[in-house]
Amino acid sequence: MNTYAEIAELYPSDAQDLLDLIAGESDDYLRYTPNFRSSPQTLADGLRNRQADRWWGFLKEGELVGFFMLRGLDEGYKQPAFGVFVAESASKAGLATRALAHALAWCESEGIGSVMLKVDPANHRARQIYLREGFKEIRVCPATRQQIMEKQLTTRWRRRRPAPL
User: What is the pTM of this model?
Assistant: First the structure.
Protein backbone atom coordinates (compact mmCIF):
# COMPACT_ATOMS: atom_id res chain seq x y z
CA MET A 1 0.00 0.00 0.00
CA ASN A 2 1.33 3.44 -0.93
CA THR A 3 1.44 5.57 2.22
CA TYR A 4 2.94 8.69 0.62
CA ALA A 5 0.97 11.89 1.02
CA GLU A 6 2.11 15.32 -0.07
CA ILE A 7 1.89 18.37 2.17
CA ALA A 8 0.04 21.34 0.68
CA GLU A 9 -1.06 24.63 2.18
CA LEU A 10 -4.81 24.81 2.78
CA TYR A 11 -6.86 27.83 1.80
CA PRO A 12 -10.35 29.05 2.70
CA SER A 13 -11.73 27.24 -0.35
CA ASP A 14 -10.61 23.95 1.24
CA ALA A 15 -12.92 24.33 4.27
CA GLN A 16 -15.63 22.02 2.90
CA ASP A 17 -13.06 19.27 2.26
CA LEU A 18 -11.96 19.62 5.89
CA LEU A 19 -15.59 19.27 7.07
CA ASP A 20 -16.12 16.24 4.82
CA LEU A 21 -12.96 14.59 6.15
CA ILE A 22 -14.08 14.91 9.78
CA ALA A 23 -17.66 13.89 8.96
CA GLY A 24 -16.39 10.67 7.40
CA GLU A 25 -14.87 9.42 10.67
CA SER A 26 -16.56 7.46 13.43
CA ASP A 27 -17.19 8.92 16.89
CA ASP A 28 -14.88 6.28 18.29
CA TYR A 29 -12.02 7.42 16.05
CA LEU A 30 -12.71 11.06 16.95
CA ARG A 31 -12.69 10.39 20.71
CA TYR A 32 -9.28 12.04 21.23
CA THR A 33 -10.20 15.15 19.25
CA PRO A 34 -13.12 16.71 21.12
CA ASN A 35 -12.87 20.05 19.29
CA PHE A 36 -12.92 18.40 15.88
CA ARG A 37 -15.84 16.19 16.84
CA SER A 38 -17.99 18.78 18.64
CA SER A 39 -17.36 21.85 16.49
CA PRO A 40 -15.97 21.04 13.05
CA GLN A 41 -17.70 24.16 11.72
CA THR A 42 -15.55 26.29 14.06
CA LEU A 43 -12.47 24.69 12.53
CA ALA A 44 -13.72 25.33 9.01
CA ASP A 45 -14.47 28.95 9.95
CA GLY A 46 -10.93 29.26 11.31
CA LEU A 47 -9.58 28.13 7.96
CA ARG A 48 -11.94 30.41 6.04
CA ASN A 49 -10.94 33.45 8.12
CA ARG A 50 -7.23 32.76 8.61
CA GLN A 51 -4.66 35.48 8.24
CA ALA A 52 -1.43 34.69 10.12
CA ASP A 53 -2.50 31.20 11.25
CA ARG A 54 -1.11 28.41 9.06
CA TRP A 55 -3.07 25.42 7.74
CA TRP A 56 -1.68 22.50 5.74
CA GLY A 57 -3.21 19.35 4.39
CA PHE A 58 -2.01 15.88 3.53
CA LEU A 59 -3.09 14.98 0.02
CA LYS A 60 -2.95 11.41 -1.20
CA GLU A 61 -3.82 10.97 -4.86
CA GLY A 62 -5.49 14.40 -4.74
CA GLU A 63 -7.70 13.56 -1.75
CA LEU A 64 -7.42 15.25 1.65
CA VAL A 65 -6.47 12.55 4.19
CA GLY A 66 -5.35 14.79 7.04
CA PHE A 67 -4.60 18.34 8.06
CA PHE A 68 -2.56 20.23 10.59
CA MET A 69 -2.37 23.80 11.72
CA LEU A 70 -0.71 26.43 13.84
CA ARG A 71 -3.41 28.59 15.40
CA GLY A 72 -3.42 31.58 17.71
CA LEU A 73 -1.27 33.84 15.56
CA ASP A 74 -4.40 35.58 14.24
CA GLU A 75 -5.31 36.43 17.83
CA GLY A 76 -1.85 37.88 18.47
CA TYR A 77 -0.36 35.03 20.48
CA LYS A 78 3.41 34.70 20.13
CA GLN A 79 3.20 30.96 20.82
CA PRO A 80 0.98 29.15 18.31
CA ALA A 81 -0.99 26.02 19.13
CA PHE A 82 -0.29 22.96 16.98
CA GLY A 83 -3.14 20.66 16.00
CA VAL A 84 -3.25 17.65 13.71
CA PHE A 85 -5.85 15.26 12.36
CA VAL A 86 -5.25 12.23 10.15
CA ALA A 87 -8.08 10.15 8.72
CA GLU A 88 -8.25 6.62 10.07
CA SER A 89 -7.62 5.27 6.57
CA ALA A 90 -4.24 7.07 6.53
CA SER A 91 -3.31 6.58 10.19
CA LYS A 92 -0.18 4.78 11.39
CA ALA A 93 1.80 5.96 8.35
CA GLY A 94 3.83 8.63 10.17
CA LEU A 95 1.77 11.59 8.96
CA ALA A 96 1.35 13.13 12.42
CA THR A 97 5.12 13.02 12.94
CA ARG A 98 5.67 14.60 9.50
CA ALA A 99 3.09 17.27 10.32
CA LEU A 100 4.84 18.12 13.56
CA ALA A 101 8.26 18.34 11.88
CA HIS A 102 6.87 20.56 9.13
CA ALA A 103 5.11 22.89 11.58
CA LEU A 104 8.14 23.18 13.87
CA ALA A 105 10.43 23.93 10.92
CA TRP A 106 8.04 26.63 9.76
CA CYS A 107 7.99 28.17 13.26
CA GLU A 108 11.78 28.21 13.44
CA SER A 109 12.01 29.83 10.01
CA GLU A 110 9.58 32.52 11.18
CA GLY A 111 11.44 33.23 14.42
CA ILE A 112 8.79 31.72 16.68
CA GLY A 113 10.39 30.60 19.95
CA SER A 114 7.93 28.00 21.21
CA VAL A 115 4.88 25.94 20.30
CA MET A 116 2.14 24.51 22.49
CA LEU A 117 -0.44 21.79 22.00
CA LYS A 118 -3.12 19.93 23.89
CA VAL A 119 -3.39 16.16 23.95
CA ASP A 120 -5.86 13.81 25.59
CA PRO A 121 -4.04 12.04 28.45
CA ALA A 122 -5.46 8.71 27.24
CA ASN A 123 -3.94 9.19 23.78
CA HIS A 124 -0.69 7.45 24.74
CA ARG A 125 0.57 7.15 21.20
CA ALA A 126 0.34 10.90 20.52
CA ARG A 127 1.81 11.78 23.93
CA GLN A 128 4.80 9.55 23.23
CA ILE A 129 5.39 11.25 19.86
CA TYR A 130 5.31 14.68 21.48
CA LEU A 131 7.56 13.67 24.38
CA ARG A 132 10.03 12.07 21.94
CA GLU A 133 10.05 15.30 19.92
CA GLY A 134 10.99 17.36 22.99
CA PHE A 135 7.64 18.63 24.25
CA LYS A 136 7.27 19.01 28.01
CA GLU A 137 4.02 18.56 29.93
CA ILE A 138 3.30 21.88 31.63
CA ARG A 139 -0.25 21.69 33.00
CA VAL A 140 -3.75 20.32 32.50
CA CYS A 141 -6.33 22.50 30.74
CA PRO A 142 -9.15 23.03 33.24
CA ALA A 143 -11.79 23.32 30.49
CA THR A 144 -10.93 20.18 28.50
CA ARG A 145 -8.83 18.13 30.97
CA GLN A 146 -6.31 17.73 28.16
CA GLN A 147 -2.58 17.84 28.87
CA ILE A 148 -0.97 21.08 27.69
CA MET A 149 2.51 20.53 26.32
CA GLU A 150 5.11 23.00 25.14
CA LYS A 151 8.34 22.92 23.18
CA GLN A 152 11.03 25.59 23.12
CA LEU A 153 12.52 25.90 19.66
CA THR A 154 16.12 26.33 18.61
CA THR A 155 17.00 29.98 18.61
CA ARG A 156 20.32 29.99 16.78
CA TRP A 157 18.71 29.89 13.33
CA ARG A 158 15.75 32.11 14.08
CA ARG A 159 15.24 35.26 12.12
CA ARG A 160 13.26 38.15 13.45
CA ARG A 161 9.63 38.31 12.45
CA PRO A 162 8.71 41.68 10.97
CA ALA A 163 6.50 43.80 13.16
CA PRO A 164 2.85 43.89 12.05
CA LEU A 165 1.90 46.94 10.01
Answer: 0.86
